[in-house]
Amino acid sequence: MKISEGVEWAAHCCLLLDWMGVDAPVSTARLAAGYGLPPAYLNKQLQPLVKAGILTSTAGKKGGFRLAKGLKDITLMDVLTAIEGPAEAFQCAEIRQHGVWGDEPASAFRAPCAIDTAMRGAELEWRRALAAQSLAAIQQNAELQAPNLRTQVQEWYREPRP
Amino acid sequence: MKISEGVEWAAHCCLLLDWMGVDAPVSTARLAAGYGLPPAYLNKQLQPLVKAGILTSTAGKKGGFRLAKGLKDITLMDVLTAIEGPAEAFQCAEIRQHGVWGDEPASAFRAPCAIDTAMRGAELEWRRALAAQSLAAIQQNAELQAPNLRTQVQEWYREPRP
Ligand code: FES
Ligand code: FES
């Protein structure tokens, strides 16, 4: 049960795009260079964010990614769901309907299994906490630790580079 | 990011063992029959629960599994950790230390990354909720839905069966 590394990559790329603050698409090569990531694989990891309406992508030589909305309107839940899909981590296979209770009528299982309910309830706490975390708030926390991050990114972005 | 089916199997087997209420090890075949599960694979899934001190296992012809403690002392968190391991689902690879910030001294990264902190914080909410759910409380909820579960299991257990 491991969250894809794409979540870390994607969340960081959103922060980086905001720090860059450029009014043009940023190439995958440039984003990848920002965190020492493999460009082709990063490109693949960012596609679901385009589909989820977090980023927009432009094809072509001057193409790349831009934020589709402000960081305050993107939560960790959005990023996680874009990459991992909307399915819950706990998937009940209704095993209670076999064996001992295999002869019960279907109506006996209308109420969800108590284990399933408890597992899903706990997972909901997690998703709620993720949904309460906007990338803007996270960026702010990062800048509290290191107030120069935006300047550093913009200087780095201006350096000539392949 | 899917939780192993072993979590559903193991949690249900703990409930079943308690409902059975027998003062002897219950064979994997019997437990597997309780939920229509493949015995060999169930046996494999239950081994980590033995290691985690939730079940005890006895080898041999009359061997099998018993609860190592009462359901009130086993939480969903215990079962999840036994099966999935203690590692957090979100694993930060410290990508912030490369690229733009590759030349920073190690001391610049002493404070954890704000994304990592937020992801881990949210996951902690989930684990807290799992740790607050004892199997005894879940069993009680199941019996509220169907008060006959214990009787049904004990009748089923007494039936002659391979
Ligand atoms: S039947 Fe799936 S968790 Fe109980
Ligand atoms: S460096 Fe890993 S989450 Fe930020």
Descriptive overview:
The structure is a homodimer of 162-residue chains. With 162 residues, the first copy, chain A, is mostly helical. The first copy, chain A, has one domain: Winged helix-like DNA-binding domain superfamily/Winged helix DNA-binding domain (Arc Repressor Mutant, subunit A, Orthogonal Bundle). Helix content of chain A is 52%, strand content 5%. Chain A contains seven helices and two strands. The first copy, chain A, has helices at 5-20, 28-35, 39-51, 76-84, 114-131, 135-145, 149-158, and strands at residues 55-58, 64-67. In chain A, strand 1 and strand 2 (64-67) form a beta hairpin. In chain A, helix 1 crosses helix 3 (39-51), helix 1 (5-20) crosses helix 4 and helix 2 (28-35) crosses helix 3. The two termini of chain A are 38 Å apart. At the A-B interface, helix 1, helix 2, helix 5, helix 6 and helix 7 of A face helix 1, helix 2, helix 5, helix 6 and helix 7 of B. Bound molecules: FE2/S2 (inorganic) cluster (2 copies). One FE2/S2 (inorganic) cluster binds at residues 92-96, 113, 115-116 of chain B.
